[in-house]
Amino acid sequence: MSTHATTVQPSYLEDTGARKGLMAWLTSTDHKRVGMLYLYSMISFFFVGVGIGFVMRLVQLTRFQNLITAETYNALFTVHGVIMIFLFVVPGLPAVFGNFFLPIMIGAKDVAFPRLNLASWYFYMSGAILAILSLFTGGGAPDTGWTFYVPFSMRTGTNVSLAVFAAFILGFSSMLTGINFITTIHRLRAPGMKWFRMPLFSWSLYATSWIQLLATPILAITLVLVILERAFGIGIFDPVKGGDPLLYQHLFWIYSHPAVYIMILPAMGAITEILPTFARRPIFGYKAIAFSSMSIAGVGSLVWAHHMFTSGLSSFSVMLFSLLTMIVAVPSAIKVFNWVSTLYKGSIDFQPPLLFALTFIFLFCIGGLTGVMQGALAINVHIHDTYFIVGHFHYVMFGGTGFAFFAALLYWFPKMFGKMYSKKAIYASWVPLFIGFNMLYFTMLVLGMMGMPRRYFHHLPQFNTGHEIATVGSWFLVLGLFMFFGTLVYASLKGEKAEDNPWGGVTLEWTIPSPPPVENFEEIPTITTDPYHFPQENEA
Amino acid sequence: MSESSHAHAIHRDDFGARLGMWLFLVTEMVLFGGLFIAYSYMRSKYPAEFHHAGAELNATLGITNTLVLLTSSLTVVLAIVAIQRGDRRKTMAFLATTLGLGLVFLVIKSFEWATKFHHGLYPNSAHLATLPHGEQVFFGLYFTMTGLHGLHVIAGLSVLGYMLRMVAKGEITQDRYVHLENGGLYWHLVDVIWIFLLPLFYLAA
Amino acid sequence: MSDHSLASSEHADDHGVEHPGYGTFVKVWLALVVLTGLLVLMSHFGQSYAVWGLLILTPIKAGLVFYFFMHLKYEGALLKGVVLVTLGTLLIFFALLFSDVAFR
Lengths: 540, 205, 104
Known about the structure:
The complex is a heterotrimer. Chain A has helices spanning 3-8, 21-26, 31-59, 70-89, 92-105, 114-136, 152-155, 160-187, 200-232, 245-279, 286-300, 315-343, 352-375, 377-383, 387-417, 423-450, 464-494, 535-539; strands at 419-420, 496-497. Chain A is an all-alpha fold. In chain A, strands 1-2 form a two-stranded antiparallel ribbon. Chain A starts with a helix and ends with a helix. Chain B has a single domain (14-202), classed as Cytochrome c oxidase, subunit III, four-helix bundle (Four Helix Bundle (Hemerythrin (Met), subunit A)), CATH 1.20.120. Chain B contains 7 helices and no strands. Chain B has helices at 14-45, 47-54, 59-84, 88-118, 126-130, 133-168, 178-202. In chain B, helix 3 packs antiparallel against helix 7 and helix 4 runs antiparallel to helix 6. The longest helix of chain B is centred in the last third of the chain and has 36 residues, at 133-168. By secondary structure, chain C is mostly helical. Helices cover 68% and strands 0% of the residues of chain C. The two termini of chain C are 28 Å apart. The A-B interface holds A 29, 109-110, 112-116, 175, 178-180, 182-183, 186-188, 213-218, 220-222, 224-225, 228, 232-236, 241-244, 247, 250-251, 254 and B 3-8, 10, 13, 15-16, 19-20, 23-24, 26-35, 37-38, 41-42, 45-46, 123-124, 129, 132-134, 136-137, 140-141, 143-144, 148. Chain C: Keywords: Cell membrane, Membrane, Transmembrane, Transmembrane helix. Chain C: It is found in: Cell membrane.
């Protein structure tokens, strides 16, 4: 569209300041560069997590069990959880695509507090480095599971304090991003960009940011209490001194359940951007989706105790939380309904991002429905702490957020890098990804129903077959991941130059050059239409 | 929190800066909210022991400290009135008073803590372990909450000290004082938290 | 927690036209001191009075600081909404927690 614009403004990938190379990136407050810093660091940590998961699956093949000790296995699932949750899925889409595209989508030059934005990346990296240091220093890698449940986390000699402190810092980074996004959305929308003209990805980020602000501090204080408990023995969680471990569980899940929505809402937002573009139709039920984001954020904050049904809550409380849990399924289902309706009678242009978006819907539905199952009290008691839970949350976190992350990456890759990837190679990588994913995690659902407990190093012979299927699935999955990211890395180095608007998208990011210029827009646009206003409609 | 100064000062958005500060205060409120949740959980579990342990605290010192903090809050807000009227000397005088009162608060607080330590009332002490469970938890919460509040007082004093410097150097002026407002907001929040801590611990008896 | 209602207040830009003077704030401070005195007084009448004082007077004191000292009176609906959403969320957290604690 604006080929002449590139000659006027350099792209954000070129160094324009006094500093060059790596230093120019590490000191840049440009929201696009901060987003890319997050992307590179996050993918690196993701692969560390994948590697750990791979080893855990491998030792579940009985013949490889001698590779590691049972203690190491405890450390591995703890670190796998901490890395994947706090370093990948929680910051996930907001930190990468939110930073990169939120200002562009609402017609702004940057976020409200650019320096704070860069600072949040430094907090993220400090937390990440501390988390990794905790593996090698002190009493050895933490072995509590990512939930750090007391009283074990108070008593164990492993390096829990440092890992917990790392999570505290990561929470701080997450809150700063939330503050930035809310202020940006309130203050920096382009003229004419009314609330209901914002692309729905921005709505999902807005909802997410509120959860980050209202829930993360609870985690922060809880982790501080664990550290104080270990350092000074203040006794709030310690039954010996009159404290109560159940209080810890309450406080922990008051954050950590909403955190699930921090992870999934932006993923849903990204899917909501992708579907209209490839169906060439405005999104079905714009307001329903916007409001369902807000109500998922609201109701999702009120269901935490469903993680504690077997912990000895009052029976009234158990019923209340079971009811609330079922209610959250409603706004989530509204979204699925709207996505499917958007595709209906659209003129579908089948491209890799759409394939991954559809895969997201499929996997997320399995994850969501198994979640509703656990909300039912009788079933919950049976499958509590089994592989069913592990399978369920991998369907939501990996099948949901992970695949949405991949879809978003495929969708926005040409814009971010200015290069196009080989679509055939991406299609090829999808096959092992999809097969491996379902072999691995669906088998876990079945194993859990059969009674295989989670976090166990050894398993009974009757689970052998299931574990073998799952492990082979993990090989396919890892193969698919390497093919997927290999294709993208190759494309970022040697790919063909991408067009400004390869998919025919209509939101603002597709009206500017690829890669975007430093200031995003030559001149701040004035918005006169809804976000998904496809020209074909008027002609038809 | 000087997040308000944009890197590329394209345009100034004082309201945006205040909004950012308020959102930060949201996280602070929820942070202490978590502790208040813990307090009420434990209090409903051990009502009698909390009543008894609360009597151990020196209410006079707690009330004095309340008055000190309330007054320091007043002087911050008066400093803003003064800067709005362009009176730099008064602004600095009010801010200096706030800093002084904040220090008085810390001194009183440290005396209080020292007395408790002297009586063997501190986390993990041998004496505390002989008390009933509820009282041990009470003192655990007391030290955690007043300690964390104390850290916030120190942080607030540092922020206001920096504001004083900025006023002195002419970086905060009659038409550009959003930093001072934000620093003041933080200080008031610290005050509000103490308003809740006073009855929870000192007057519960 | 859904705060779309905040949207309208957006462009209530800087503080109101005229700024409040020293006197307003000194009066608020006096009120705060008096309330503190009342609170202490109530606590001398016994446990249940102390709790009522805590539940009624303390929120009033905090409200005065929020409303006047923190200038919420002079701000638009957005910032007021932010505070209300936060306090509302905390209240709901309390209520749900006590659905467990109170019925155990």
